[in-house]
Amino acid sequence: MENEWLTKEAFWEGCRRNPIDPVLRLLLTSDGTLIRHLESLFLASVKVAIQDQREILIDEEHASRIGIPAGEKGIQRKVWLSAGGGRKVFAVSIFPLSGLKPDFHQEVLLGQKPIGRIIEAQQLPTRRDRLEITRLALPQVAEALGLQPRELFWARRYRLNISDQVSGVIFEAFLPSLFSSSSFSP
Question: How far apart are CA 112 and CA 148, in angstroms?
Fold first, then answer.
């Protein structure tokens, strides 16, 4: 599965041949909010720390995943999600600016809440689709955690449709230590 983006069904088929932690399978394939799952696992609130946030011109790959023309202005946000005493997930979100309502856009710019928490607070109906899962090396993420650059991360990407506003793309990489038996102690 390394460096190959798989559909949910292909991932499950791979899991039948090579068993993978059930919590990992749940986190990678869930269409619920990651924030709530992390809070349930760690019995702690999830904190967000912005690594980088900027306006970008959305490239062809991401525009295609969102379903918009390439080159549209967007906002890209790279964050760490922490719970239970440490970083657990590295996430990147990209949303086209043209579809964001001002209150949602303002909350994103403030950088104080995870996207999932903003959506929940504003009671915005959402739908996730185009889910893909892989295992890949993320040297810069590994370096930020003091891990070897070739460390492999389980990751997923999907399109997040916010009902009456906009679609964006989300990438989430889960720390390898997240799935050790002692990592869920409150």
Answer: 30
